[in-house]
What we know:
Radius of gyration: 27 Å
Strand order of the largest sheet: 2-1-3-4-5
Shape: flat
InterPro entries: Apaf_helical, Disease_R_plants, NB-ARC, P-loop_NTPase, TIR_dom, Toll_tir_struct_dom_sf
Number of strands: 10
Order of helices and strands: EHEHEHEHHHEHHEHEHHHEHEHEHHHHHH
Protein name: TIR domain-containing protein
Structural class: alpha/beta
CATH class of the largest domain: Alpha Beta
Low-confidence stretches: 1-14, 57-62
Amino acid sequence: MAASSSSSSSSSSSINPQWKKYDVFISFRGADIRDGFLSHLYEALHRKQIFTFKDENLDRGEEISPALLKTIENSLLSLVIFSENYGFSPWCLDELAKILECQETTGQIVLPVFYKVDPSDVQDLTGRFGDALAQHKEKFKDCLEKVESWSRSLKGTANISGWDSRIIKPESKLIDEIVNDVRKKINHSFLSVYDNDGLFGIDSRVKEVESLLCLESEDVRRVGIWGMPGIGKTTIADKVFNKISNKFESQCFITNVGEELEKGTPVQLRHEILGKLLGGENLDVGTPCTLRHSTKRRLPNTKALIVLDDVYGYLHLKELVEGWNLCGPGSRIIVTSKDKQVLEIVGCKKYIYKVEKLNDCESLQLFSFHAFKQTQPTNGYMRQLSERVISYTQGVPLALKVLGCSLYGKGVKEWESELKKLDTIPNKEIQGILRRSYDGLEDNEKSIFLDIACFLKGKIKIV
């Protein structure tokens, strides 16, 4: 990443990316770059599923519209493309002033691109940018304060580390570098939010999965994440995906694969996956058993990250993943399932991570996060009641969340009443979680489970 003569980075600590409508806002002078560099950059961002706003379809007047100001506020990151005539546009300069304001007030990420211009001309207001400011001073004689604010905005943005198109060639390489860095910064912003969103104990589990993935290896590796419903398999897979996806050319995260296979066919789902990986909505993947030659040619050139979440029914799944060894070197396929046998059959046998239950400390933090909106109980007696919940839930994250939310805002007597009920009437939502696990068993497995359950309870099973 090329930098201007001096650099500083903006802080994104006060941004909540979940509140932003757009990932990226692009500020540009259309006449300079619309039909070339901008269109290629926009398409590259779109292919990487980065939701980008560019205002080329809006009617431009002398002053920037309130709607566009709101759009800038609703963007996580702004790309400012300084081209030869950027400084001559009052509209562009108003955009820039608003972008710098959002950087200061909300921590918006700002990244400049110096397209066929010298960064020092922007920073020192020389060359074409000096000419532009001189013209504005003449035109806006009665409003020189505005011109001064534009000058400060230009200088301030030029001090941020960015890209110089004169150094990074060819243009396709420049676009790749911009898109990859934008993705990395967006992912980092989301991960910063997730780290403070009640995902206690997640980091150590993510590291375990990462060690199995061994990203330095050039093999095409399948890794399984195994555990009971509600234990956090999807959460772990999601965090891993967001953390490492910028290292891959193509990415695809498919949720509820088991349900999708019940509604459709492996061929339909394979079509969807290949469409996301290879960027073709109408991609013809071939017959149920054989991929088309064109697909086989493209896959080996694609370093892909694929997550297949919550799978069961290994015969259909085997059809679905057949041929993924054709993906390019370094590709990774992550499969999550409550059935270890499914993971073994689809090639994850050597690399399976069993998700462990939360320990007592992690359980207390997670439960408190939902029950008290803090990481510890409010007082000693509430801690005793909380520890009863911890014992009941046995370290299952989803159960801890369900009970924490149900007890939030209630008094001691209501807590005692609810906990007393749990001894005789299990929570319906938690029962639903466990029921899904039971329903996924084969008939003989269900029979064995009931035999063991009745034996442990000291009950007689009635056949």
